[in-house]
Amino acid sequence: MEAEQGNWFAVRTKPRKELYAKTNFECQGYRVYLPMCRTWRSSARRRERVIRPFFPGYLFLYLLPHEQNWVSINSTFGAIGAVRFGNFYPPVPEYLINALRQREADSGIIELAPRRSSPFKKGQKVTVMIGESVVSGLFQEMHDDNRAIVLLNILKQQIKARVPIEAVTTYAVA
């Protein structure tokens, strides 16, 4: 006789209640996966590294067909309910869960890649290619790995813009 095959399902949780919901699901005997990551939190005077859910407001349950008691799952403390479309509860592909687990360090935390270091300094004069036009500006900061925030000089005004980093080059005097 073959073992029953289950599926992973996404469950929405109440805001900042992922760990509370996880504990309550585990107390009911469910297999729970709550991927966590290390991120920055800023407060009035300091910036610190904290561990938070990788998908805020969600966790995953592995359910065998006989465990798919949606009324019980949806009424678990800390949970809002399983993700569904009408009466259809879409399973989360196993490869997605496996890919998340493969990214975890030995601590069980998903280590995010550090932000790419900025190729420019804040306030540095740069030029930006916008279509076929070249616009001068001042580099402000990296927004993410692919975009930079630049103050563009357009019509004698500085306009803050988020542009692809590939479009930004050092200022060249003609």
From TrEMBL:
<keyword id="KW-0804">Transcription</keyword>
<dbReference type="InterPro" id="IPR036735">
    <property type="entry name" value="NGN_dom_sf"/>
</dbReference>
<dbReference type="Pfam" id="PF02357">
    <property type="entry name" value="NusG"/>
</dbReference>
<dbReference type="GO" id="GO:0006354">
    <property type="term" value="P:DNA-templated transcription elongation"/>
</dbReference>
<dbReference type="InterPro" id="IPR006645">
    <property type="entry name" value="NGN-like_dom"/>
</dbReference>
<feature type="domain" description="NusG-like N-terminal">
    <location>
        <begin position="5"/>
        <end position="104"/>
    </location>
</feature>
<protein>
    <submittedName>
        <fullName>Transcriptional activator RfaH</fullName>
    </submittedName>
</protein>
